[in-house]
Amino acid sequence: MVRADSFRGQRVRVTAYLKTQEAGGAHMWARADGQFKGRLAPFHYAESIAELTQTQDWTQLELVLDVPPAADTVLYGMVLSDKGRLWVDDVQVEAISALDPATPPPTPELWPADVEERIQARLRIDPPLEQPQNLSFEQ
């Protein structure tokens, strides 16, 4: 999670390299959040369409999303489903041209009925960072 200050009103690309071993599935997600009527509201959510399964060598995944002017944070992460191992390396978060196409958000029918409650439950208490840190996972 990073503060949205330097990304507000821009299109942002999140890239990462993922590697799996005997994985049930692995993918990447990103979203821009802010406050709406006193509650956290995800303004834009993107999830990688490519899901890595079984054992796969390093694969670059990319998400592109718009960060609205009212966004407070940009969140991103990787998910390992079911079983196996997941490695992540070289994560990058960068502002890009508005002409680059955005990743379409998942269709609502694919979202669980309790998606808002799940998002609220996943909120971290830690304050967001000013800038992304340790994206190489070397520290």
The averaged pLDDT comes out at: 80
Instruction: Please trace the helix and strand order, writing H or E for each element.
Output: EEEEEEH
Instruction: Work out the strand percent.
Output: over 45%
Compute the number of structural domains. Answer: 1
What share of residues is helical? Answer: under 10%
- Low-pLDDT sequence parts: none
Largest sheet: 6 strands, antiparallel
Radius of gyration: 15 Å
Number of helices: 1
Shape: globular
Number of strands: 6
Give me the secondary-structure category. Answer: mainly beta
Structure characterization notes:
- The protein is mostly beta strands.
- The chain has one domain: Jelly Rolls.
- It is 6% helix and 54% strand.
- The protein is built from 1 helix and 6 strands.
- The longest helix is centred in the C-terminal third of the chain and has 8 residues, at 115-122.
Annotate the secondary structure layout.
Elements: E1 2-3, E2 10-36, E3 39-47, E4 52-67, E5 73-81, E6 85-96, H1 115-122
